[in-house]
Amino acid sequence: MSNQEYFYVTTPIYYVNDVPHIGHAYTTVAADVLARWYRLKGYRVHFLTGMDEHGEKVAKTAAEKGMTPQEWCDHMAPHFQAMLELLDISNDDFIRTTEERHVRGVVTLLETLQEKDALYLRDYEGPYCVACETYLTGGELVDAEGGAGGNLCPIHKSPVDHLREHNWFFRLSNYRDRLLDHIKEHPEFIEPATRRNEVISFLEEGLNDISFSRSTITWGVPLPWDTDQVAYVWPDALANYMTAVGYGTNEERFHQDWPASLHLVGKDILRFHTIIWPAILMAADLPLPRQVFVHGWLLAAGEKMSKTRANKIAPSEIVDGFGVDCSRYYFLRDVSFGLDGSFSWEAMLQRYNADLANDIGNLASRVLNMVERYLDGLSPKEQGVDGDDGGEIDALQAALTSAVSVYGERFEALDFDDGLLALWGFFHAANRFVEDTTPWHLAKDKSPAAQARLREVLGAALEALRISAVLLSPVMPGAARRLWDKLGLEAAPDAQILEKAVIWGQFPAGTRVTKGDPLFPRKEI
Ligand code: MSP
């Protein structure tokens, strides 16, 4: 067990001021695909997501709804959990920052920072965006047209508050050089490179200390040594990545499961994760996460989806329209992970019909149909093992080998669209294989040689489908399972170990396969 490789992936924890939209679904699906990928590789995986429940933003929303903040959070939790279920998310844990395990961990972290003299009292005066839960500088504010010098948050384009408080400050400026050194020594700490460069430039300009407590709000974790103040929501929220694996409550587990392998975050929360978070860990003498991967936004009508802009699309809208598998596939295939991408119903329909109904759906239907018609629905024992074919089957196996290696390598670099492109290269090769080997002609020729070739060709095609189901399972777990069932196979595609599963020639002979309903029935507009 101890030699088993470990992968700990997190999503940001979501603000509960509003129900989830497809922007939240997007990060969560990406994390799920990675978790499922590494499980398929046989890693011990821990996949964490959850809710960010403290802070002014949540307290304000609760007050507007006439509830206490805790009542509001309890009311919202099922909406987020329903999103996870709806999207077939395989998280191992779901943390809420109002849980005792988290609050105890935050107290431990605050006490540690205080003991290490990382905090000090100071007056603060300046702008604060409640929607971001961020302190801003005057220079960052914009006007309604996005120009400098207004009173609006550059992200939300909504008016900022003016804060005047006596707060505990974190000595963030002390960590500038160590952060720069860390990024230089471990460039993979921030991906993609454009974001790394952005952080480096920001650090090179110098860092200011940052307020870590609030005296004018009460919805948060009180500072143990100054209970008139609560922790600023960001250090509280960031700590979730550690408190969920036992920080402050279960030392043994914490040492085993920390640090995280990967924090997935949107570009709006880049600095919190690549500057403030590592600086907190440095101050507390704790190991840093291995990587922060920063993705772009899913835009609706050209803008980031948000409550303030009322341009949100609910995950249930796209799942109702296209099913969970297509929704997951669309997010990863149609948008380059790391860049912004526009959500479009037309593009989704196009992907559904071309990539799913046609490329993989048709392939499955055709092959299963022919096995039903020509082989009484029973899988043959011949599958063209060991390159004894010298032609089309060898070419198909070669296409598989190359697809598997590119797919894995691209997924592990979080380049999902190129990974999927490689996998689809294999589906195209399999469709070509069926065209080139013309089983429908072989079926008409009753000579023993033609019949043997027919069995071999359909056996190879079934084998291609078996391996396809395994490879698809991280992205489209439901469709992979449905395909697996049609193939009459046991266990489940996501219960396989990748390295073994992709070895050609394992389709059990004499298995009853069934064409049944199409995997992805074509859709009209
Ligand atoms: N609560 C903080 C995160 C704390 S993590 C310690 C927060 N929450 S959020 O709900 O506003 O955003 C959570 C994540 O969703 C962020 O990574 C954000 O980038 C992502 N998205 C929110 N809207 C999005 C899109 N429209 N598109 C893609 N992702 C977006 O920030």
CA-based gyration radius? 26 Å
What is the third-level CATH name, the topology of the largest domain? Rossmann fold
| CATH-defined architecture of the largest domain | 3-Layer(aba) Sandwich
Largest sheet: 7 strands, parallel
CATH top level of the largest domain? Alpha Beta
Tell me the helix content.
40-55%
Kindly report the average pLDDT value: 95
Q: Considering the protein shown, what is the CATH homologous superfamily of the largest domain? A: HUPs
Distance between the termini: 51 Å
Shape: elongated
Structural class: alpha/beta
Helix run count: 18
- Would you count the extended β strands for me? 17
DSSP strand (E) fraction?
Answer: 5-15%
Unreliable stretches, pLDDT < 50, 5 or more residues? none
